[in-house]
């Protein structure tokens, strides 16, 4: 039905063909009694490439011939339906007596109930016991409030034959619900009636699928023409599947009871439904029967709990936590048994501790449990809270960034997912869409070739071509047909404003451009339709001549093969190629008279994809160049023609022309051809991988499909070898498949795109970036980050991603360091206390140590910058440190582990020796050790930070002062265990001398080692730091200009003139610096315990493959 | 950021026509906004120290210069302390007692013991008299937790013996002070009293004590200690030696780094050290 063009409201006058009034379209189009020639052709056009495609084809099939029941289902689908049948729900329309036990329309987005909050939350937070439960509870409370507002919204339903005003939550399945214009649909409804005489209504589904165009929904045939009050009495049954989350599928039947119309069972599709959270637009009212309610609606089912994206860093932190947990367990076991042995052999002699001789058996557990208690602080509770905090700040910094503010569209960058900023710094593959991402995607109707004649060649704008205008004026049949197809064959919805002007709501840029172009050529559209699966067809009835016409448009590959065999398609093929060379997006239009003789006419129309040199988006080649330098591989996945894609890739610096670069083609129509081609390409790649040549491979959607099904392993190898790839003519699902493939090789992927066809790829990738450009906001909504322009990507990755990675690396390891430090001191102390598990520190000190003393200073790491943004931009290679995970991996962690062990030994030994004999009071001793820890951690933070703003200085040293203030306060409370302790200590010179000694001994070697490495084994970061700072005290605004100039003289030169080619020369020396540091080496390390087995592949990182 | 500032300053000048206060307010706002935008743009002015040889060597020299005098002062203070230690647990058991354990556990034998101490050096008052016990785990968990601060602080709370198990009550009466409590560390000293008289070298002190506490079962040593004190406390050479050696090491490191710096100077910030600027070798 959707494709049967009905003219809205004003029937005959609505189609304004000022040039030729010959065409008049009207509603009731022939009911095709079965799969006719048209249908066969539609279904046959794409020989089942994949199940998804088949489905899409079936969808066209069904939509084109609405009244035909389902397409003959494949066996798997039969089973599917059989299964469904077992789980059907029957909705009795407007019938209280049949009202059932389906849930009511109360919605609940809260994650918890009063009863399961604690256990469920504990389970979810199992990995770290966390303090953010309160935040969760608060968020959930807010969700509850908004749910309640939705639930208590008042609306009209039909009950017992009359209309009633009820709350949204009281809607039952089977109720008839009334909705007015611009109201939100409260639950999933099957449409029964609308204010429009044609039985259609328009809905905005943005909240459901993010698509901003209006969609048309139609009344099922049996209900067409029902009067207003008849609707009140309507009875019947709808047989529909159990609730699922597929918002594009609704396979149901409606059967109205007498006296209503025929007794036929009529099938329903998604086009007959109004889904929850959609808005009714351009329609005065609509009513429908509730089929799914509450949390069982399509929206409710699809909402689910989104799988949280886990960054590589989080995974690493989890792994380290696991390792520490095992370490803790083994410590508990060892110390616990040692304690028990000591108890049996020694403590019995220590009569004063008064162990009973015959104690119950469970006493053997006491000492291990004591140690478990002591060691439990080893896994820092604060890390989760700290990470949550800094991550949300990273996201805020992205939102606030004025340099990523798109002035043209007045949109700031936005981080929708606040938890994955670190991953930005670890991106290895960028998969980018071409259209609108690399190009600005302004669709302009530029050239066309109609019936062998080309228009718009001279001026580059067909709309201004005099010849075309003349042809229209003369009513040239080919041109008129061409315009007809242009106007009708689309999904555009015309919206008539009160003043009579017509505006169009289009799903895609192409259609918008076409309809507007046609409007400019005096062909105005008043109605619409569509599907976008490479080709689209519309059937219309010309009511003057009674002819039924099939209008088609699509990509040349899809349309040309359908051409009438005798037809001269060569001109068109040439024209397509020629236009593609110019970087234009091409589209073919065709029409055909049905039932008539084999008569076909071919027209073709070409549109500017706005990708020629001048139109290319600003800064794209530079961005790609910089990101490529930083070691990120670029794959371009596009729906465009191969030649267009290559052209764009060349213009965007993605590939280099001969002789610098080489393009390898993988093509072929059959499996064998593709296999041979693939083999050849891999071979070439292997051979030339050592040459300084930029290799890239090109593959089209057809070959890709074959490869992904049959040769995925070989393709994986190719993916590892190749820095650059162009995939043309790929479908959205193939894009997602490619992302999945790279993910399965354990690469960090970033997908960037701007259109609805990129959504799947964006959601699949580790990081999805959407460009909030012209092609609507679908991609930006689905994405983790949305930016206004492609060029902001480099800042997003190099500045925000990199800083986030560095900061989190420090923060997380430091959190472990300070927890381990205090824990080691406790363990050492136990050797002096008869291994009985005595805690040196009291519980107040321990709590405050984790929560205040050591957490707050390190949070200021969010302001830390190791290198200035400018330096990073000039030396993008530095990103390798993040990509390879140099700053957080088992070996760096081992360094921090060693440091905490060393510091614990220093603090402990110095304390017990300085406070021996008559000073050895336990509370004093514990306070000295605690003070020592605080001092050391302040020095450690100072040493590890790279830049100090007043915030950092305030936090670090203010924290020390706060430590004393807090302890003075506690020491003045008589009932506290520490009464007078701090006052006594601060009066002793010995206390201060001891602390000075602890600081000196603790930090001296750390400083010396750091200095030594900094000077004699510098990392690239250190070199750049020195370069940056030796060239002047600090960048100030005054000398920035001259600084920039001198940069070009001194430092850019070596970077720029040294040819940066083949990855090997870039990576090898860096890697050889510390092979342990590479993320890949993890596989063999002992920290590998929690690594899921499937994610390991035998493929080495391509840098190592060389 | 600049645009931002410019925009707000324009707003400020508009206000200036109105009144001086408005101008001041606007200026304050401007400053706040600038700070704010500097924070949001991560452009807060920062000092970025780096580990230059000069800086690091200076730090080590300064640490050495501070530590060595402190070490000398601490050591001198410790050396000034005169300490007399007399172990009596062995000596106070009569030679004829074959089993020390049964001796100490036999309450019918009188345990009075007389010790004579010789003052080795002049001792200035106040002289502290300590009771020292070695090999005693008074910080054992069971021992440490066995104490009650309330009872200790207030005589009227004598009945409060919470936490004092297993030394809470005897014969139905609360023990005051209750519990096993303690000072720290296996070897500890407890102040017994003070002598407010100066002692001269070769003075003898006679001490009469009751040797009651059973240390024989766990090999504990009982000692009587007489000690003077300085600003740093009692006799403790540890701090002095530690400071001296750390100071010395700092000087050594400073010296070594200077030497390294002179022998093998590295140009600061030479981009040729960047691995990607090096020409690939061995290929």
Automatic annotation (TrEMBL), chain A:
Entry annotated with the keyword Transmembrane: yes
Q: Name one GO molecular function term.
A: metal ion binding
- UniProt-listed PROSITE patterns: ATPASE_E1_E2
Query: Chief location of this protein?
Result: membrane
**Which intervals hold domain P-type ATPase N-terminal?**
91-129
| Entry membrane topology | Multi-pass membrane protein
Q: Does the keyword Magnesium apply?
A: yes
The chain positions of domain P-type ATPase C-terminal read 780-1019
| Localization per Swiss-Prot or TrEMBL | Membrane
Give me the segments passing through the membrane: 820-840, 896-915, 927-943, 950-970, 990-1009
**By its UniProt entry, which NCBIfam families does this protein fall under?**
ATPase_P-type (TIGR01494)
Would you tell me the protein name for this molecule? Phospholipid-transporting ATPase
- The species is Eleusine coracana subsp. coracana
Q: Specify the taxonomic lineage.
A: Eukaryota, Viridiplantae, Streptophyta, Embryophyta, Tracheophyta
Gene name in the database record: gb05292
UniProtKB/TrEMBL annotation, chain B:
What InterPro entries does UniProt report for this protein, alphabetically?
A: CDC50/LEM3_fam (IPR005045)
Membrane topology summary:
Multi-pass membrane protein
* Keywords associated with the record: Membrane, Transmembrane, Transmembrane helix
Q: Which Pfam families match?
A: CDC50
**Subcellular locations according to the entry:** Membrane
- Which segments cross the bilayer? 55-75, 241-263
- Asked whether the UniProt record includes Transmembrane among its keywords, one would answer yes
Q: A GO CC term?
A: Golgi apparatus
Record-stated family = Belongs to the CDC50/LEM3 family.
Protein name listed in UniProt? ALA-interacting subunit
Q: What is the lineage of its organism?
A: Eukaryota, Viridiplantae, Streptophyta, Embryophyta, Tracheophyta
Gene symbol of the encoding locus:
gb06355
């Amino acid at each position: 039905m959707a494709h049967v063009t009905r003219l809205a409201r004003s029937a005959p006058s609505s189609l304004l063909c000022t040039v030729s009034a010959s065409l008049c379209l009207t509603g009731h189009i022939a009911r095709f009694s079965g799969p006719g020639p048209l249908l066969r052709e539609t279904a046959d056009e794409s020989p089942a490439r994949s199940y998804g495609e088949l489905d899409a084809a079936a969808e066209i099939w069904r939509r084109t011939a609405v009244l035909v029941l389902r397409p003959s289902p494949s066996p798997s689908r039969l089973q599917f339906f059989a299964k469904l049948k077992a789980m059907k729900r029957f909705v009795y329309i407007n019938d209280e007596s049949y009202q059932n036990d389906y849930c009511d329309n109360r919605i609940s987005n809260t994650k918890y109930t009063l009863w399961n909050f604690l256990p469920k939350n504990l389970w979810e937070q199992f990995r770290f016991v966390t303090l953010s439960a309160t935040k969760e509870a608060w968020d959930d409370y807010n969700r509850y409030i908004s749910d309640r507002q939705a639930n208590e919204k008042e609306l009209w339903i039909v009950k017992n034959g009359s209309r009633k005003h009820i709350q949204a939550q009281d809607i039952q399945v089977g109720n008839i619900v009334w909705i007015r214009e611009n109201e939100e649909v409260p639950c999933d409804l099957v449409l029964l009636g609308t204010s429009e005489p044609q039985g259609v209504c328009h809905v905005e589904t943005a909240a459901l699928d993010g698509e901003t165009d209006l969609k048309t929904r139609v009344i099922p045939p049996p209900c067409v023409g029902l009067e207003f009050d008849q609707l009140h009495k309507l009875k019947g049954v709808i047989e529909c599947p159990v609730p699922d989350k597929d918002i594009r599928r609704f396979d149901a039947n409606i059967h109205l009871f007498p006296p209503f119309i025929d007794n036929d069972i009529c099938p329903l599709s998604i086009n007959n439904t109004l889904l929850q959270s959609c808005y009714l637009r351009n329609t005065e009212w609509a009513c429908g029967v509730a089929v799914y309610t509450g949390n069982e609606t399509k929206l409710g089912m699809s909402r689910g709990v989104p799988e949280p994206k886990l960054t590589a860093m989080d995974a690493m932190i989890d792994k380290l936590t696991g390792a520490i947990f095992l370490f803790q367990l083994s410590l508990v076991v060892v110390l616990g048994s040692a304690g028990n042995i000591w108890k049996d052999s020694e403590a019995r002699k220590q009569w004063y501790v008064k162990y009973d001789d015959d104690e119950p058996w469970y006493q053997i557990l006491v000492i291990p449990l004591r140690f478990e208690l002591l060691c439990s602080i080893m896994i820092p509770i604060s890390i989760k809270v700290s990470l949550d905090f800094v991550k949300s700040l990273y996201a805020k910094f992205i939102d606030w960034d004025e340099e990523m503010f798109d002035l043209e569209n007045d949109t700031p960058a936005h981080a929708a997912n606040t938890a994955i900023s670190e991953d930005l710094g670890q991106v290895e593959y960028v998969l980018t869409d071409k259209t609108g991402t690399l190009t600005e995607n302004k669709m302009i109707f530029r050239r066309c070739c109609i019936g062998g004649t080309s228009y718009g060649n001279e001026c580059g704008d067909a709309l201004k071509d005099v010849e075309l205008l003349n042809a229209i004026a003369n009513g040239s049949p080919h041109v008129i047909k061409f315009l007809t197809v242009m106007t009708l064959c689309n999904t555009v919805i015309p919206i008539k404003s009160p003043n009579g002007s017509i505006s169009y709501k289009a799903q895609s840029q192409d259609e918008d451009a076409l309809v507007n172009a046609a409007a400019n050529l005096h062909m105005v559209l008043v109605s619409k339709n569509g599907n976008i699966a490479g080709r689209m067809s519309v059937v219309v009835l010309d009511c003057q001549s009674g002819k039924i016409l099939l209008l088609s448009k699509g990509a040349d590959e899809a349309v040309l093969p359908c051409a009438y065999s005798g037809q001269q398609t060569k001109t068109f093929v040439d024209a397509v190629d020629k236009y593609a060379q110019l970087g234009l997006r091409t589209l073919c239009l065709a029409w055909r008279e049905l039932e008539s003789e084999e008569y076909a006419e071919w027209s073709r129309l070409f549109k500017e994809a706005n990708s020629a040199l001048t139109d290319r988006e600003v800064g794209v080649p530079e961005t790609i160049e910089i990101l490529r330098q930083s070691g990120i591989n670029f794959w371009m996945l596009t729906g465009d023609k191969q030649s267009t894609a290559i052209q764009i890739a060349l213009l965007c610096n993605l590939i280099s022309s001969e002789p610098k670069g080489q393009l390898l083609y993988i093509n072929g129509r059959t499996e064998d051809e593709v296999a041979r081609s693939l083999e050849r390409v891999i071979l070439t790649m292997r051979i030339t991988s050592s040459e300084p040549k930029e290799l890239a491979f090109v593959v089209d959607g057809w070959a890709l499909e074959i490869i992904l099904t049959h040769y995925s392993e070989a393709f994986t190898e190719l993916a590892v070898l190749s820095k650059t790839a162009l995939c043309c003519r790929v479908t959205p699902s193939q894009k997602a498949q490619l992302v999945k493939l790279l993910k399965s090789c354990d690469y960090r992927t970033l997908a960037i795109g701007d259109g609805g066809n990129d959504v799947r790829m964006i959601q699949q990738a580790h990081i999805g970036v959407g460009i909030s450009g012209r092609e609507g906001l679908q991609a930006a909504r689905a994405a983790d980050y949305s930016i206004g322009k492609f060029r902001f990507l480099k800042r997003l990755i190099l500045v925000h991603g990199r800083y986030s990675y560095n900061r989190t690396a420090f923060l997380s390891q430091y959190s472990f360091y300070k927890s381990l430090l205090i824990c080691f001191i406790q363990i050492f102390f136990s050797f002096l206390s008869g291994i009985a598990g005595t805690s040196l520190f009291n519980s107040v000190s321990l709590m405050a140590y984790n929560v205040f003393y050591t957490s707050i200073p390190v949070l200021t790491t969010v302001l830390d910058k190791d290198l200035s943004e400018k330096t990073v931009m000039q030396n993008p290679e530095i990103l390798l440190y993040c990509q390879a995970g140099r700053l957080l991996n088992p070996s760096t962690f081992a360094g921090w582990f060693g440091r905490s062990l060393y510091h614990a030994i220093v603090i402990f030994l110095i304390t017990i020796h300085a406070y021996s004999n008559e000073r050895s009071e336990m509370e004093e001793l514990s306070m000295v050790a605690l003070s020592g820890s605080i001092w050391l951690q302040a020095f450690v933070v100072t040493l590890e930070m790279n830049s100090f703003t007043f915030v950092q200085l305030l936090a670090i040293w203010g924290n020390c002062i706060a430590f004393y203030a807090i302890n003075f306060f506690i020491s003045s409370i008589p009932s506290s265990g520490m009464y007078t302790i701090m006052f006594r200590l601060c009066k002793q010179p010995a206390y201060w001398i001891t602390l000075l000694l602890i600081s000196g001994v603790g930090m001296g070697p750390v400083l010396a080692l750091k200095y030594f490495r900094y000077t004699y084994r510098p990392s690239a970061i250190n070199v750049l730091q020195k370069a940056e700072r030796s060239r002047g005290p600090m960048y100030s605004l005054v000398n920035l200009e001259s600084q920039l100039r001198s940069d070009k003289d001194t430092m850019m030169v070596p970077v720029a003139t040294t040819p940066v080619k083949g990855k090997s020369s870039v990576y090898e020396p860096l890697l050889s610096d510390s092979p342990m540091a590479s993320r890949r080496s993890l596989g063999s390390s002992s920290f590998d315990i929690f690594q899921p087995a499937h994610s390991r592949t035998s493929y080495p990182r391509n840098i190592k493959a060389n | 950021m600049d645009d931002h500032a410019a925009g707000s300053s324009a707003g400020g000048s508009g206000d200036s026509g109105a009144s001086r206060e408005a101008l001041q307010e606007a200026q304050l706002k401007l400053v706040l906004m600038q700070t704010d935008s500097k924070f949001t743009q991560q452009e807060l002015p920062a000092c970025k120290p780096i580990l230059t040889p000069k800086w690091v060597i200076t730090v080590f020299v300064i640490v050495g210069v501070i530590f060595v005098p402190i070490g000398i002062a601490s050591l001198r203070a410790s050396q000034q302390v005169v300490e007399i230690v007399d172990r009596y647990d062995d000596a106070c058991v009569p030679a004829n007692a074959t089993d020390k354990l049964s001796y100490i556990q036999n309450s019918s034998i009188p345990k009075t013991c007389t010790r004579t101490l010789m003052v080795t050096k002049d001792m200035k008052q106040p002289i502290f008299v300590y009771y020292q016990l070695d090999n005693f785990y008074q910080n054992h968990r069971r021992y440490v937790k066995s104490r009650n601060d309330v009872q200790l602080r207030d005589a009227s709370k004598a009945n409060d013996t919470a936490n004092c198990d297993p030394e809470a009550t005897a014969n139905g009466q609360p023990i005051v002070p209750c519990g096993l409590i303690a000072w720290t560390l296996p070897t500890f000293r407890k102040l017994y009293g003070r002598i407010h008289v100066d002692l001269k070298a070769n003075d003898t002190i006679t001490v009469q004590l009751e040797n009651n506490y059973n240390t024989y079962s766990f090999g504990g040593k009982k000692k009587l200690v007489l000690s003077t004190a300085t600003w740093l406390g009692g006799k403790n050479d540890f701090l002095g030696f530690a400071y001296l050696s750390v100071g010395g090491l700092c000087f050594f490191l400073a010296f070594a780094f200077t030497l390294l710096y002179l022998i093998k100077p590295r140009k600061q910030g030479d981009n040729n050290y960047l691995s990607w600027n090096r020409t690939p070798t061995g290929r």
